[in-house]
Amino acid sequence: DAKTTQPPSMDCAEGRAANLPCNHSTISGNEYVYWYRQIHSQGPQYIIHGLKNNETNEMASLIITEDRKSSTLILPHATLRDTAVYYCIVRVGYNQGGKLIFGQGTELSVKP
Amino acid sequence: DVKVTQSSRYLVKRTGEKVFLECVQDMDHENMFWYRQDPGLGLRLIYFSYDVKMKEKGDIPEGYSVSREKKERFSLILESASTNQTSMYLCASRQAGTEAFFGQGTRLTVV
Q1: How far apart are CA A10 and CA A28, in angstroms?
Q2: In this complex, is the C-beta atom of B104 within 8 Å of any C-beta atom belonging to chain A?
Q3: What is the pLDDT of residues B41-56, one digit of tens each?
Q4: Which of B19, B20, B13 is nearest to B111 (CA)?
């Protein structure tokens, strides 16, 4: 099963872009990269996912390297409400959608 | 909006009690999951289910069992609660290949 590695914590100034890295060097060709975040005392919330192309939605952008061994989640204009723990997950398993294994995540602190 | 509802937000139980944590989803999702979350350890998968009456162990199944008699409901059972099972429990559901939706969590304290 592919595992992910993320820095335990990061700081970002309000209004600046937050770039959260994730390493997944053992990812398989048909495994997707998912990002979730968890604001204190709430359940995790889906942000974005991708296979090999870069993806963008209203919340964030996801940049996946060509060899797919790492990715970066970009919050283009971080706000105080983006302070949360961000999880990078590789979807493991091949039948019925597979299970989601969470790592430790990155605790992002957005500061005024 | 997809809703994943956990039956209790806070629960206090005594050591040795049998505890049921209930989770219901309203989107006809095939996959359902139970996680526990502890400080410094992140989210750890206890059990998951691909379909009704189907279940698989996650990373930390010891001391837990699950039941999925209906597609929308996934129950986590602590056969004999112990203090080391004091934790935040999170339920999630997803359709195969799509994002997961999480409940708000149940904070269980075993005294």
Answers
A1: 28
A2: yes
A3: 888 999 999 889 889 9
A4: B13
